[in-house]
Amino acid sequence: MTTQPVILDLFAGPGGWSEGLRTLGLRDVGIETDPAACATRAAAGHTTIRADVAAYPSTALLRKVSGLIASPPCQTFSAAGLRAGNADRDLCHQGLGDLARGRDTRAALRVACTDPRSLLVVEPLRYALDLRPDWIALEEVPAVAPLFTHTAGILREHGYSVWTGVLNAADYGVPQTRRRAFLLASRTHAVAPPEPTHTKDPGPDTLFGPALKPWVSMADALGWGASDRPTPTVTAGGGKSGGPEPFPTAARKALMDAQRRGSWVLHTNRNQQPDGSRQTTDPHSAPAPTFTAKAGGQWILRHSNRANATVRRADEPAATLLFGRASNDVSWYPDDSTKPEPVRITIAEAATLQTFRAGYPFQGTKTKQFEQIGNAVPPLLATATLRALVPATVEVAA
Hints:
By secondary structure, the protein is of the alpha/beta class.
């Protein structure tokens, strides 16, 4: 470990925050236990300590940390999971309060939790109180917002300026209406949320300045229908590691042709509106939005086989992309056939919609690569969040 102050990234994953820092001319040291994510970080050039965040002794890093980043695992609080975190929320609040009073009761509380992973949400406070970094950035699913509010109150008592709230990734150029709770804190300056760069309805320029940019669509992000961009590589994740499919199916070839023409619809597994909110109409009776293609039929990307899947046109951002045990169900379908042949989404397509740079070296099995993509902070959102929080940054070309 270097003697120079470092930026510590807890639950570092494949490097979403790390890529955001790299754009700002900064590097982090991540703590991560998953072997595949560690291998991805190594291949991408990100420094990693392979360890369990909850078991790692924070005292080993005293006076060595200038910034603290953490995105605790969200499975127990996520709407896509079993939501055991709802049953464990009071125990998590107790853990935060005990740490604030100088008592470490994590071991006993972990045993009492419905799912021990729920208590990982208190780990950032343990590191923050022990290491007293200059600044802190935390990210989680919106259900964790009350716990972030509790954490914020404790940090304010220790001299931090703190902001907490929910950000929509689409407001920062991510082609996805991914909504996440954030906590931003600093000991050196007042903290405010990052200024949006994009919006759903930009409107005209005004006397006070130019209008924000429109949300980035999936079609724009993937380069579909753009004559000045190369045709997407014919990869369907056919190999064990998610590599190229040497003999693409007729459906994949048809999808490539549709990509060039610009006729697609994105279908994901959560019943969301383009702004990330939930639909209020009955998904089984409400008609799906219609997208009139320039030529040919429509294409749909379904995140699962659920009947109430969200429908997104290609000229809109995606809904939140989540991958797990059902990642093999994330496929494109032609919407003009009674028995459509599925075309699996590629690693490259998913990574692009999460704003990872082209060719990012995800490691592990195909399923593990999809999981890493879905769980990561979009690098573009990380950059926007950190830009106003971290002082004296020097941006480099992405």
